[in-house]
Amino acid sequence: MNSFNFDELIVRRGTNCAKWDEAPNDNVIPLWVADMDFKAAPCIIDALRNRVEQGVFGYSVVPEKYYDAVISWFHRRHGFDIKREWMLYTTGVIPALSATIKALTQPGDKVLIQTPVYNHFYSSIRNNGCIAEECPLAYEEGKYSVDFAAFEKQCADEKVKVFVLCNPHNPAGRVWSADEMKKMGEICHKYNVRVVADEIHCELVMPGYKYIPYGSVNDDLLKYAVILSSPSKAFNIAGLQIANIVCYDENVRRAIDRAININEVCDVNPFGIVGVIAAYNDGEEWLQSLLSYIYENYLYLKELFSKELPDFHVVELQGTYLAWVDCSALKLTSRQLSEYLLQHNDVWVNEGEMYGQPKGHSFIRINLACQKARLKEGLSRVVAGIRQLQKA
Ligand SMILES: Cc1ncc(COP(=O)(O)O)c(C=O)c1O
After folding, report:
1. Which residues line ligand 1 (CB under 6 A)?
2. Which of 128, 137, 180, 383 has a beta carbon 3.0–4.6 Å from 144's, enabling a disulfide?
3. Domain 18-42+284-391, classified CATH 3.90.1150.10, yes or no
4. d(CA 238, ligand 1 centre) in Å
C-alpha cells in the first residue's frame, strides 16, 4: 500500500504545462513528453515552499551540501563513489550533453548514437556542427540489444569521436548490464572514442533490473567517461532545470567547464539547488512508492495490449516510464498513427519516427507516469483508434 497518493488527479491544464497546454483541444489525454502528472515528493514541495517564503530570488551559489547530497545518494543507492572535484553542474542534461560534445569534438566530427534514441541527441550533435552516426540497436524477437559487430565497425571510423550511451535507454526501455557496458566501453577505448553516458532515467528501473552507473563498472570505464544525470525525471522536477556532470579526467572536465561557460549555461536557479538537495536527501521512500505505481501501470498496459491487440508487441520495460509499442501490424507510419490518434481519439502519444528508429518498424511511445484513471482512459482511446484503423 502506497503511503503517497499517486491516484490524486492533478489539474495541469492551464498551468503553462507543455504536456497539457500544447494539446490541440481540452479533451486530449496527453501520454507523450517524458514528464509525470504526479506532484513532486512532499519533501521537495516543503523545501521549495520554505525557499519561496524567504522571498528573494537573486543569483545563487551552489553550496557544499548540494555536492554532499549528490555524492551521498549515488554512494548509498548505487554504490558509485563520486569525488567532489569530478563534478560540474549546469541547467539540464541536454545543456550538459551539448557542452560535452562541444568540448570533445570539432565541427565535422561524428557522434555515435544507438537508435531509436531520445530525439534531442540529434539536435545537440547538429548544433555543435557534428554528424549523428546512427548505430541501430538490434531488434530481434521483440527485444533490443547491441549489435557489437556494427558498433565496433562504426567506432573504427576515425571521424567518430564520441559515443552517447543512454542508460537506461529512452525509448527502447533497456537497462544496460555491466557486461554490455564493459564491452561497449572497451570497443570505444580501442578506437579512442569518448563515452558520454546520459543517465537521466537512472532511478526509473523496474523490478528485476538494476541500474548500474556506467562509471561504476570499472576504473577504466570511469576514467574515459563523462556521466550526465539529474533527479529531474525520477522526481518530476525537470522545470527546475539543473543537472550534474561527473568527469574523472581533469583536462576533459576543464574543457567541458569552458564549454558550459561559452554556452552561457553556468548559472542554475535557486529552486533547482533546493529541489536536488531535498530529492537526494529525503526523497527515497517517495521514489520507491512511485516505482511500484509505475510498474502497476506498465503491467496494466501490457495486459491490455495482449488481450485487445495481441499483434502489437509491448517491448519489455526494464527502465524509464515510457512504454514502447510495436505497431508494425498496422502498415502505417508511426507519424500517421499518432496523428490519427490525436485527431480522432483525443489521445497524444509520441511517434517512433522522431527517435530515428530503424526503417521498417512503426512504434509509438506511451508515457505511463500518470494516474491510473487517466492511463486507463488514454489507453482505451489508443485501442479504439487502432481498431478503427484496422477496419479502415
Ligand atoms: C535521455 C534523456 N536525456 C535528456 C533529457 C532531457 O534532459 P533535460 O530536460 O535535463 O535537458 C531527456 C528527457 O526526456 C531524456 O529522455
Report:
1. 34, 92-94, 118, 166, 170, 198, 200, 230, 232, 238, 243
2. 137
3. yes
4. 8
